[in-house]
Amino acid sequence: SQQGEEDPQALSIQEGENATMNCSYKTSINNLQWYRQNSGRGLVHLILIRSNEREKHSGRLRVTLDTSKKSSSLLITASRAADTASYFCATPQGAQKLVFGQGTRLTINP
Amino acid sequence: GAVVSQHPSWVICKSGTSVKIECRSLDFQATTMFWYRQFPKQSLMLMATSNEGSKATYEQGVEKDKFLINHASLTLSTLTVTSAHPEDSSFYICSAISRLDTQYFGPGTRLTVL
User: Fold this and answer.
1) Which residue of B has its CA nearest to A88?
2) Torsion-angle region of residue A82: left (phi > 0), alpha (psi -120 to 50) or beta?
3) For residues A18 and B70, what is the distance between their CA atoms, to the nearest angstrom?
4) Closest CA of chain B from A43, distance in Å
5) Residues A98, B106: C-beta atoms closer than 8 Å
6) Omega before B86 cis (within 30°)?
7) What is the per-residue pLDDT for B1?
8) How far apart are CA A36 and CA A78, in angstroms?
9) Phi, psi at B64, each rounded to 5°
10) β A85-93/A104-109 pair status
11) What is the pLDDT of residue A1?
12) What pLDDT, in 10s, does the model give residues B64-104?
């Protein structure tokens, strides 16, 4: 079953703008992960943020986690056409299983 | 980084036939692998957990007799879709857990049942 919701479901912005995607989850977690999926391809792991972390950066990516609100956000700064993809948050369920959010389809217009 | 491969990358078959999809961890051993299914414009849904040397654990609503999983070695898990029907057409993705508990995903297999 899906862990939670992501919004927006689809986002279209101009190249160079920032893109923000949000994820909400339902149960307590140890960590939350963000993945990217190009059309028809597998998943690429972007970043993992632990439950005791509030913010994490990786290059142009910035992830926040608010465990009190059970929500996370992914910010991509200075977007590029190559960032066009679907982005999913995922939370562990049990020892190793991952439960994915519904995803945000991001389109960067040149 | 660690690599997980899937074969085939796409397959088209006739209704009623069986299709086998392989998932291999190329440079690490994986005692646990997962199989996901993804319909167009939707998220990944976990189908089953594949454990080396033991029976797979299926998620609720997934027919174990239809989706046969065999984790024969520490680097190979197979998913066989038996008596496939058009509604089984989907994108099937596997993942493998490394010893560092990091999950690596395969590139996916697109199954089309005519």
Assistant:
1) B43
2) alpha
3) 44
4) 6
5) no
6) no
7) 63
8) 17
9) -70, -25
10) antiparallel
11) 42
12) 999 999 988 999 999 999 999 999 999 999 999 887 778 89
How many angstroms separate the CA atoms of A79 and B51, rounded? 40
| Distance from the Cα of residue A73 to its chain's centroid | 6
- Pairwise CB contact (< 8 Å): A41 & B108: yes
- Rounded CA gap, B87 and B81, in Å? 12
Q: Is the peptide bond before B8 cis (omega within 30 degrees of 0)?
A: yes
Contact assignment for A96 to B103 by CB distance below 8 Å: yes
- A12 half-sphere exposure, CB direction, 13 A CA radius: 2
- Give A69→chain B minimum CA distance, Å: 22
Q: Between B43 and B102, where is the model more confident?
A: B43
Pairing of strands B44-51, B103-105: unpaired
- Interchain CB distance below 8 Å, A102 and B103: no
What is the structure's pLDDT at A2? 47
The single-letter DSSP state of residue B63 is: -
Q: B99, B85, B81, B62: which is closest to B8 by C-alpha?
A: B81
User: For B19-31, what is the mean pLDDT?
Assistant: 93
For B88, the token pair is 């089984």
Is the Cα torsion angle A81, A63, A93, B53 positive or negative in sign?
positive
pLDDT tens per residue, range A39-95: 888 899 999 999 999 999 999 999 999 999 999 999 999 999 999 999 999 998 876
